[in-house]
Amino acid sequence: MDDLSLSNPVFATYATAAALTILKGVAMSWLTVIRMTIENGGFRNPEDLKRTMANPRPHDGQLAPNERVERIRRIQLNDLENLPYFLVAGLLYVTTEPSLLLAQFLFYGYVVTRLLHFIAYYTAQIHDIRAALWTPGSFIIIFMAGSTLVSAVW
């Protein structure tokens, strides 16, 4: 299992890219909380309207949909729909013993596409732009999964 060791530069590259995407995904939860706090709304649960130190003046409007909060939630949902595929496909791809240069291109390329997609989504760019930034990352996942399948079968 030397393939899955940080002494393997391909695995170390994967581990770096995976850690960055995981941190980005977790950051979305924090960004949601920050946005809810700034907006004083966008809450989802009735119990969130209880008076607490964090919510000293609750009101029914806090449960109403808040577009600024919902945008962050949609970005997070997009991550939750995409990042697990990258994490699994990338790990499996490491076992195919690809060249370091190709692995770096794929792993770091995926991270860049996710960051650019986030910026486009956060700044309310049109779907065409978001899709153009999402598509390369999707192709990277497909390539890694396909390469793994070919290596496993042949």
Number of spatially distinct domains: 1
Rg to the nearest angstrom? 19 Å
Count helical runs.
4
- What is the SS-derived class? mainly alpha
Low-confidence stretches: none
CATH superfamily heading:
Membrane associated eicosanoid/glutathione metabolism-like domain
Task: Look at the structure and give the mean pLDDT.
Answer: 95
Tell me the CATH topology: Four Helix Bundle (Hemerythrin (Met), subunit A)
Main sheet record: none
Secondary-structure element order, N to C: HHHH
Helix content: over 70%
- The counted number of beta strands is 0
State the name of the first-level CATH class: Mainly Alpha
The N- to C-terminal Cα distance equals 20 Å
CATH architecture: Up-down Bundle
Core attributes:
elongated; 154 residues; Four Helix Bundle (Hemerythrin (Met), subunit A); mainly alpha; 71% helix
